[in-house]
Structure formats: C-alpha cells, structure tokens
Amino acid sequence: MASAAVLPERLDAPHASVLHNACGTSPVAPFSDAQLARDAIIALIDEAELTPKPALVDRRGSGAHRDLDLAIMRRSAHALEPTFAALARTARRRGEPSALLRAELAQIGRAGEQEMMQATGGSNAHRGAIWIIGLLVAGVALETASNSSMRAHRPGDPNRVDTSRVCTLAAQIACFPDRFAASSDSHGERARRRYQVGGARREAQDGFPHALEVGLPALHAARARGLDENAARIDALLAIMSTLDDTCLLHRAGLAGLHAGQRGARRVLDAGGSSTAAGRVALDALERELLSLNASPGGAADLLAATLFLDMLAHRDASRS
Q1: What is the pTM of this model?
Q2: Which of 67, 93, 110, 226 is deepest in the core (most CB within 10 A)?
Q3: Chain centroid to CA 14
Q4: For the segment 148-163, what is each residue's pLDDT rounded down to a tens digit?
Q5: Cα angle vertex 16, ends 12, 18, to 5°?
Q6: 214-227 pLDDT per residue, tens
Q7: Is the peptide bond before 52 cis (omega within 30 degrees of 0)?
Q8: Strand boundaries in 207-246, DSSP class E
C-alpha cells in the first residue's frame, strides 16, 4: 500500500480544500479517487482540530482519552489516505452496490485499520471513521460514476453530486453482510448488543441520518445565523450528540454517560449554542460531567467528520457552477 501524501496540518479558511489542491501540487480532478481520499482526510483532521469539543481530542488536549492526542489523530488520518483512495477506486470499478463490492471494501478497510494502528503505535484513532467515511467515499464514487445518460436527465446541474443519493448508495453497500469478517468483539459492538442500540452499523444501513438529517441542517442553520465556522461546527456536533445513541459513551460510562452526553448537548443548544455566553457555560459543564465519567462521544465525532465530508461535496459543486 502506498504511503500517504502529506497534507497541511490545518486549514485556516473553511473549505479551503474545495478550492485548492490540498498538497499544493498539480490540480486533482473533482471527485477523482485521489480527491475523494484527500477530502476524507481533511474531514478527519478538521474534526480532530475543532476546539473546544466536550471530552474529545482537540487543540487543548486529549479529553477523556489516555492513548490519543492531536498529533496521533493527524498521523492516523494521513495514514488512511491510500485506504480511502482504494475504496473509491474499487467502488468505481464495480459500478454498483453488491455483495462482492461489500467484501472487497471490507478487505481494504481491514488493511487500512492495520495501517492506522501502525501509524498510531497501536491506538485506535479512526476505526469507526474508516467504516463511516469509507462507505461515503464509496458512495460518492458510485454516484459520480453512474450512467451518464441518467445523470444528463437530472433537474439542474447534471454534474452535481446528490448527497442524499450518496448516502443511499453507501447504505445499500452496508446492508450486504461482510462474509469474511471475523466475529466482532469491538467495544462498540459489545455496547450495541448490551444496550440494544443500532450503533455504527445501523447508522450506515439507515443512510447516515445523523449526518444527512441532523449534522448538515444544523451546520447550515448555524452559518445562516451568522456564526463563524468554528462555532457552526461545534453546534453541529452538539446536535448530533443530542440524539445519537453513541456506543462510545455507552461503552465508557453506560446509560449514565449516554444520557449525560445527550442532555448536556441539548442544554448547550437550548442556551443559544456554543457561541453565546450561556451556551459556553453549559458546554463547559457538559465537558466536566463527561470527564468525570471518563466518557467521550467518539461516535458523534465520527458523524461530524461525515457531515464535514458531505458538506465539502456541496461546496465543490458550488465552486464549479
């Protein structure tokens, strides 16, 4: 597997990656395998760098994590660039969701996990994101490779990427069983079984509702209210947290942790969001409560990264129209 290209450690302007090649070299074709991989990495790094996030790794520190920090999150993201490119390339070659595509993507994803673990020294920084973002990357590859005559008859710009269809295609892939997977005993899977919640698997099979129907609308609404990009993204994270049955919270702190995360996020939003004085007080209280429980909303963080990835697709469309 090829080594990951080096991306800038942060983007000073929102969506800078949409308008410029992230590596500062020759332009990359919109929605190419290489560009989709870079978009995925940028989404992961933007999520990691977003500050302040409650009990999550950010620019201030490690949150509730002992084995992760921002440098590790960046290394993990960079190491996954070849994985995301391979996922896009494979989906584009197969052309439609199928059991065979599901098996091939799973094999690539498992190899990507090993690359991640090697890059992080054994820390699981992005296993959930490989699943969530990886499926979306595959969905974009399928959507943009669809029959040209079908795309030509779409209303509006036939070259526009339909994010809803991207999520539908990704969901169709996720609904096929991974025939060659070993029996999973991950923290998230144990929490899913114990508390009878959907987890990342159901989120994908349902078409990523917490990204498409919660995260994106919250992000767009915050921007429409005039919030700066950082505050808009924090509020999108909180919107996701307020309704998600986050298996990361459940694994670390059970139902008490889940309820603390959901109710605390709702209190911040009810106080006007993270940009208001009352909202900042509520956000600080939420973080203190989660840290006292050693709980971290990692599932919501993965879905925020998915939200940012989908948002980049729309902004690239706007830049091309």
Answers
A1: 0.88
A2: 110
A3: 16
A4: 445 555 555 656 799 9
A5: 160
A6: 999 999 999 999 99
A7: yes
A8: none
Q: What is the DSSP letter of 270?
A: H
What is the largest distance, in Å, between two alpha-carbon atoms of the chain?
A: 56
Integer Cα distance of 5 and 178 in angstroms: 29
The 10 Å Cβ neighbour count of residue 230 is: 15
Q: What is the pLDDT of residues 102-128, one digit of tens each?
A: 999 999 999 999 999 999 999 989 999
Distance CA 74, CA 120 (A): 9
For residue 58, give the 3-state DSSP assignment. Answer: strand
CA separation for the pair 147, 94 (Å, rounded) = 13
Pull the structure tokens for residue 102. Answer: 């599901």
Is residue 61 helix, strand or coil?
A: strand
Instruction: Count Cα neighbours of 6 within 13 Å in the Cβ-side half-sphere.
Output: 2
**Tokens 């989908």 appear where?**
310
Under 8 Å between Cβ of 108 and 87: yes
Task: Give CA–CA dist 300/58, Å, rounded.
Answer: 14
Give residue 240's identity as a one-letter amino acid code: I
In the block, tokens 């995360």 appear at: 261
